[in-house]
Structure formats: C-alpha cells, structure tokens
Design brief:
This protein is α+β, with helices and mostly antiparallel strands. 36% of the residues lie in helices and 28% in strands. The two termini are 31 Å apart.
C-alpha cells in the first residue's frame, strides 16, 4: 500500500528572525484538515487573523522552533505567509487552481487554470540579509515648511500589519492599502518620525498617482516572495492585461 507524505518541508523566501537573531527558513507543514476548513467560516476572524491561524495550525516546525505560536506567525513577513498559503493550497487541494478574469476592453470572461508548481518564487540567497527598499520619487512631497522630500525607504509588511488593516479593508480597501504602506515606511526624505506619524496617510494621498505607482512597482519588483502577477490575453479582442492570482480565494 502506497505511503503518502504527511509532512512537507519548504524553504521560506525570507525567513523568521527570533529574539536571538537566528534566522529560521526551513518550514515543515502538513495538509489542511477539517479544523482549518472551519476557520474559513469563522466570522469572528478578520482576513489577516485568518491567515495567521491557518498557518499556525498547519505549521509543524519553523527551523529550530518546535512550537510555533500565533505571535510568531504574526511577526513573519507577509511574503513568507503568502508563500506558505500557496504551499498549503498546493499540498491540500492539488497544484491546479482554476480562476476567472474579465477583459478590461471587451468584458469577455477568460478562464485560466494556474499550475501552482510553476508560479515564480524569489528567495534570498543563503546568508543574504533582507535589504530595505529605496524609492526615488519623481514629484515628491512638499511638507508644511516647504521642504521637498523625494526619497522613501521601505521595509516589508508583516502579519501584524495585515491584521491591523484587515478591519479597514472591509469598508475602504484603498485606505487599508495606504495604512499598510504607511506602516512600512522607515524613512520619508528628512521628515522626523514624529512628523511622519502626524501626517498619517495624508502624506500618501498628497503624492501624485505616478509617484504612488513607483512605490508599489518597487515593492512588487524588488521584494522576495511569490510572484502572483502574470499576463492574460483575451482570445476575443486580443487585448493583453495583467492578472493577479487572488490569495484570498485559494481555499474557496
């Protein structure tokens, strides 16, 4: 009788750094069970907290850490959490993921079956430290004193940031996106941290759409993790457009 694996070892794109400075990148996961399926229908869980509890429940080991708590999963980078969701979907329900997209030009519905084994994953090299992301803005931001700030330094969001903005996302997705980005800013020009906190998301709303595009483009192109973006071509009108695999509906 064939024996199927019950544990699956995967390599995280970045890894979790513990209090002693040790990086844990080798993760051991198991397939989702009915207990995890019930979490998908728990109305008390925000989307960010749902991801945390799904991963915690299926994460057997994380490097040398034998007992993985919700706090540890919350402190993990979003790129690692998304990668674990991808792997949980693949080992639990198979590597084929059907999806439906709508052509922005002619409204034709386009059916696609993604092969989860072929989705690109960018990882840090062994021993490579995670670098901050620096973005040079074209127009920049003029503060209340008239000073122009054109450089933003960003770090990657974590699970705790996702959990923070989850309740906002249900009512105002754009505001949630800006709040999440604000939490990732380590430095904005020469603005002191107190001033950046006082400005809040207004500083992001005052940026031109072009500069906002530069920021998100830099995050998507420079950070490690799963590349959920791909090119879709409409067979009816020939239009090509960018599609994004929806992590939220992985298990629906």
């Amino acid at each position: 009788m064939a024996q199927y694996p019950r544990e699956f070892e995967v390599l995280l794109p970045v890894g979790y750094t513990d209090g002693a400075g040790r990086v844990h990148r080798q993760a051991v996961i198991r397939k989702m069970r009915g207990h995890e399926e019930s979490l998908l229908y728990d109305q008390t869980l925000s989307s960010g907290r749902l991801v945390t509890e799904l991963i915690r429940s299926c994460l057997i080991r994380l490097g040398d850490i034998e007992t993985v708590t919700s706090q540890i999963v919350s402190e993990m980078y979003t790129v690692d959490r998304n990668y674990l969701l991808l792997e949980l979907r693949r080992i639990t329900l198979g590597e084929h993921l059907p999806a439906l997209y709508v052509c922005p030009r002619c409204d034709t519905e386009i059916s696609v079956v993604h092969d989860l084994n072929k989705i690109p994953v960018r990882r840090l090299e062994e021993g490579q430290a995670l670098a901050d992301i620096t973005v040079q803005l074209e127009d920049g931001y003029v503060d209340r004193e008239g000073a122009l700030h054109t450089e933003i330094v960003l770090t990657l969001p974590r699970g705790i940031d996702e959990e923070f903005v989850s309740s906002i996302a249900e009512k105002d997705p754009l505001r949630a996106q800006d709040v999440l980005l604000l939490r990732c800013i380590k430095r904005f020009g020469t603005l002191p941290p107190a001033a950046l906190e006082a400005y809040g998301i207004k500083i992001l709303r005052d940026l031109t759409m072009g500069d906002r595009h530069y920021i998100y483009q830099a995050l998507n192109s420079q950070m490690p993790g799963v590349d959920f973006q791909f090119l879709v071509r409409c067979g009816s009108c020939g239009t090509s457009f960018q599609g994004v695999i929806d992590v939220v509906n992985f298990f629906v």
